[in-house]
Amino acid sequence: MQALILVGGFATRLRPLTDNRPKALLPILNKPMIVHLIDKVQGLVDEVILAVNYGKEQLEQYFNEHDQGIPVILHPETEPLGTGGAIKNAEKLINDTFIVFNGDVITSLDVSEFIRFHRNKSGMGALALWEVADPTRFGIISIDPNNRITRFLEKPKPEEIFSHLINAGTYCLEPDILDHIPGGRKVSIEREVFPKVLDRRLYGQEFKGYWFDAGTPEIYLETHWKMLDYQLESNELTENIGQNTMIEPTVKLVPPVLIGKGCVVDENSTLGPYVCLGDNVRIGAGCKLSDTVIHDRTQIQDNVTCDGAILGMDNTVTAGLVLQQGLITGDGYTIDEEFLKLTSS
Ligand code: GDD
Ligand code: MG
């Protein structure tokens, strides 16, 4: 069995965090988003195919440097082919039942249970479903009492909503669906393919836990905290402080907090609730951080207060600053009085 992950798009809503890195490589709880998905299928598939356009070189470099224990094949498109076109483009690599993930979702879905569901129903495919209050940004689905999908509508207008169950962006498909995707052009699987193959039997399975489409800074932060809470509740988080991290005894950690490897936190600082530090981050003395994610190697000098920010890699924050809610920086930024004046005006 294979897994195909769709990795397209420019992730403009996460700029400047995505100025130098594709969204798939942005960390969530110190692990790239794409690796969260690869981990979901470890032991279940023989290889992972990434259907990529933007960010191919960085992804290539990442996987050359970080072995995943299963082959990860990058399959590029010369131009964006849409969700259906990207799947069709990988046709010659697919020889059996396959799993598809939208590369921008973070989910607690149990993939082996999902595969079992698909095999039991033995339709042309199965879609994972998630319930939301406002489904207008998604594809909505209705199912009959036997879980067979009866209707599908992508991005419904408020007056068109017939279901609050959405397409959660994970499918288990039989290869014959590829015969229903036109080749050589841009195709949306949601708009052009799924509605047309309902007579070939597609099934939907709702699951519980968490699910995010982490496309905005607010949801990026929320994803961290909901997952951290979930991992703590389900005892999945065994260690919340990485190796070789040094925390002064006077530091107050207010859980939940996740700290990477090789960090230093100086005296009298307070971290948390809800703080995630990447690897080799340095926090000076007397800092107060909450609701904040900081990526690798960023240095925060003394007496900085920060609530509700996302800081990229290799930033420097000068002493005594109060960072405002909603601040988001790219990689290699220097944050000083001048910078804050410019961003607040
Ligand atoms: N390779 C490739 N090429 N990938 C693509 C392309 C493309 O041309 N276009 C989109 N993708 C990838 C995106 O990077 C993303 O990971 C996934 O396919 C879905 O595309 P989005 O553009 O993020 O779609 P959406 O979020 O508006 O809607 C989709 O996801 C929702 C769940 O998050 C649909 O599948 C909805 O039905 C669904 O509810
Ligand atoms: Mg999306």
Could you characterize the architecture of this molecule?
With 345 residues, this protein is an alpha/beta fold. It has seven helices and 28 strands. A seven-stranded mixed β-sheet has the order 5-4-1-6-11-8-12, with helices on both faces. Strands 14-17-20-23-26-28 form a six-stranded parallel β-sheet. A five-stranded parallel β-sheet has the order 15-18-21-24-27, with no helix packed on it. It is elongated. Magnesium ion binds at residues 102, 104, 213, 215.
Q: Can you lay out the helices and strands and say which pair or pack?
A:
Layout: E1 2-7, E2 27-28, E3 31-32, H1 33-40, E4 47-52, H2 56-65, E5 72-76, H3 82-89, E6 98-102, E7 105-107, H4 111-121, E8 125-131, E9 139-143, E10 149-154, E11 165-173, H5 189-193, E12 202-206, E13 211-213, H6 217-233, E14 246-247, E15 252-253, E16 257-259, E17 264-265, E18 270-271, E19 275-277, E20 282-283, E21 288-290, E22 292-294, E23 299-300, E24 305-307, E25 310-311, E26 316-317, E27 322-323, E28 334-335, H7 337-344
Parallel strand pairs: 1-4, 1-6, 4-5, 8-12, 14-17, 15-18, 16-19, 17-20, 18-21, 19-22, 20-23, 21-24, 22-25, 23-26, 24-27, 26-28
Antiparallel strand pairs: 2-3, 6-11, 7-13, 8-11, 9-10
The chain binds guanosine-5'-diphosphate-alpha-D-mannose and magnesium ion.
Guanosine-5'-diphosphate-alpha-D-mannose (GDD) is lined by residues 6-9, 51-53, 77, 80-83, 86, 102-105, 138-139, 154, 166-167, 169, 190, 213.
